[in-house]
Write a structure and sequence with these properties.
8-stranded mixed β-sheet; 10 helices; 8 strands; 12% strand; binds NADP nicotinamide-adenine-dinucleotide phosphate; Oxidoreductase; oxidoreductase; NAD(P)-bd_dom_sf; SDR_fam
Length: 299
């Protein structure tokens, strides 16, 4: 059974973790720092990031990254690639869930904009440094709820069709379409970088507290879910398991994949739809203005 003790030494390595000031991202950053990794906490609120860094200890830095704003994404990427000649790990962890329809600063539906487009753009902008870092990995965090997702490229704004569960599920399916397509393109290019995916199962974090404020729901929620530390294990396995080569998807091995030690899990067939993944990629490049360039042509 894979456990935290299986995370090998990360000494000399650099990781960037999005959404590292809270929840599963914080637990992921802490575990990596405890293994000797230099961890950049890429967070939308630098004060909360600094507080998180103080609680983590070890070698950390905080950089501002608001995934709901393309100018913030560009600035963060420029700072990072200017400062770090190597980036071994990118953990695309940050996520948002909004009960009512909202938009990013650039006018994208919020959950699709932050969870997918923001990470798509950020990854593309720092990829050059990762391609120059041997054995680098990009881990994108999805969810069991991707199973209920559908990506309709003709209705990305969801102006008339918005339901928060559908919008969240769509963003998490997009995370997997991206992670698997990125791996196909990296492999075709013979890159030293691998793309993998993970999901944490059920973890009672700020993501749900905001959506379900009732005390009873909170209490029940805590009972059926696992801790952020346990939730981070699938991400940590994707990031560090020497047996993983790219394209793997890890999640908790218990009932319904809600809790338990991480193991390889299956995504729905739609997540492996290569035609849809290519279309989503092209649309994501168009919307964000971030082009991955000739190195990563469709496989
Ligand atoms: N909790 C679960 O059961 C569960 C299940 C499946 C998948 N997931 C996934 O796990 C990941 C982590 O979620 P979590 O449960 O740890 O939730 P969380 O405690 O709410 O943490 C989410 C993190 O994302 C950050 N974030 C939100 N919007 C952002 C933005 N615009 N720019 C940059 N960062 C932003 C938050 O920043 P602030 O600290 O500033 O709010 C926070 O640090 C997400 O991708 C989520 O979809 C969670």
């Amino acid at each position: 059974m894979w456990s935290i003790d299986d995370v090998p030494s990360q000494a000399g390595r650099v990781a960037v973790v999005t959404g590292a000031s809270a929840g599963i991202g914080f637990a992921t950053a802490k575990a990596l720092a405890e293994r000797g990794c230099h961890v950049v906490l890429a967070v939308r609120d630098p004060a909360r990031g600094a507080d998180a860094a103080a609680r983590i200890g070890g070698s950390t830095a905080v950089t501002r990254l608001d995934l709901a704003a393309l100018d913030s994404i560009r600035s963060a990427a420029t700072r990072l690639i200017g400062e770090y000649p190597r980036i071994d790990l990118l953990i695309n962890n940050a996520g948002t869930w909004s009960a009512t329809r909202a938009e990013t600063r650039d006018g994208f539906e919020l959950q699709f904009g932050v969870n997918h487009l923001g990470h798509f753009a950020f990854t593309g902008l720092i990829l050059g440094t990762m391609l120059a870092t041997p054995a680098s990995r990009i881990v994108t965090v999805s969810s069991v709820s991707h199973r209920g997702g559908a990506v309709d490229l003709s209705d990305l704004p969801m102006l008339e069709t918005y339901r928060h569960t559908a919008a969240y599920a769509r963003s998490k399916l997009a995370n997997l379409l991206f992670a698997f397509e990125l791996q196909r393109r990296l492999a075709a290019a013979g890159a030293v970088t691998a793309s993998l995916a993970a999901h944490p199962g059920g973890v009672w974090t700020g993501l749900f507290r905001g959506a379900n404020p009732a005390l009873l729901v909170n209490t029940l929620g805590r009972l059926v879910t696992q801790s952020p530390e346990r939730g981070a294990l699938a991400t940590l396995r994707a990031a560090t398991d020497p047996a993983a080569t790219g394209g793997q998807y890890y999640g908790p091995g218990g009932m319904g994949e809600l809790r338990g030690a991480p193991k390889p899990v299956r995504a729905i067939a739609k997540a492996h739809d290569e035609a849809l993944a290519r279309e989503l990629w092209a649309e994501s490049e168009r919307l964000t203005g971030v082009e991955y360039g000739p190195t990563l042509r469709p496989a």
